[in-house]
């Protein structure tokens, strides 16, 4: 799937996440929070490893602007 293509309406990500955890909302939220923490850690590693010239001064931010 190309990034700009819209997913069909029959695919509901929330229902899929709950289904993956057998309807347990707390387990689904815990998994999503763990994934978020892991991605923030990966972003921090990438920020430390990147040179300023590589990105022409742009730096990634963990928080939304």
Task: Explain how this protein is built.
With 65 residues, the chain is mostly helical. The chain contains two helices and no strands. The longest helix has 25 residues.
Give a count of the beta strands, DSSP E runs of length 2 or more: 0
- Helix-strand category: mainly alpha
Which percent bin holds the helix content? 40-55%
Give the percentage of residues in beta strands: under 5%
Number of helices: 2
Q: Terminal Cα separation, in Å?
A: 28 Å
Q: Write down the overall geometry.
A: elongated
Helix-strand blueprint:
Elements: H1 13-20, H2 25-49
Task: Please supply descriptive tags for the structure shown above.
65 residues; elongated; mainly alpha; 0% strand; 51% helix
Short description:
This protein has one domain (12-65).
């Amino acid at each position: 799937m190309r990034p700009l293509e819209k997913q069909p309406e029959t695919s509901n990500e929330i229902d899929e996440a709950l289904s993956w955890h057998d309807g347990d909302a707390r387990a689904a939220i815990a998994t999503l929070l763990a994934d978020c923490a892991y991605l923030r850690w990966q972003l921090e590693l990438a920020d430390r490893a990147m040179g300023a010239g590589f990105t022409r001064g742009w730096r990634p931010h963990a928080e939304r602007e």
